[in-house]
Design brief:
By secondary structure, the chain is of the alpha+beta class. The chain has one domain: Fungal kinase associated-1 domain (TATA-Binding Protein). Helix content is 34%, strand content 37%. It is built from three helices and seven strands. A seven-stranded antiparallel sheet has the order 1-2-3-7-6-5-4. Helix 2 packs across helix 3. About 9% of the residues have low confidence.
């Protein structure tokens, strides 16, 4: 009987899981909100009502000097779009989770740019 390498078996089981989940990573921020990088989008739930988050997100993209800013926010959802100087699309989606909680998803470009997404999130938080 041949000896089976347990490390090889573990590796063969783990790699497909990482491929399917896209290597999602989540970390805690200082405000105890979970930030996740999921399939090219930065996602977080903020402890603020959707109208406040919508205003803060719109101000953030304007403060960062992005162009073609369009903001549509209602009582349950919202979308803010813009583009960088290089013409890369920026999309910020808002969804009401509760009266004082809003889920926000930030995607920069087709495949996501985590550094720019975090810059936008930091600017949004400054405006809240």
């Amino acid at each position: 009987m041949k000896h089976i390498n347990l490390r090889l078996i573990a590796l063969l089981l783990i790699v497909p899981v990482l491929v399917v989940t896209g290597g999602c990573v989540a970390a805690k921020t200082a405000a105890n909100n979970t930030v996740g990088w999921i399939r090219g989008a930065l996602e977080i739930e903020l402890d603020n009502p959707i109208d406040q988050v919508g205003r803060a997100a719109t101000k953030a993209v304007n403060d960062l000097k992005f162009s073609s800013v369009v903001s549509k926010v209602d009582v349950v959802s919202g979308e803010i779009t813009a583009e960088t100087a290089q013409g890369t699309d920026i999309g910020i989606l808002l969804n009401k989770v509760g009266d004082k909680t809003t889920k926000i998803s930030i995607r920069v470009g087709a495949f996501g740019d985590e550094a720019v997404s975090r810059l936008i999130l930091d600017e949004i938080k400054k405006n809240l």
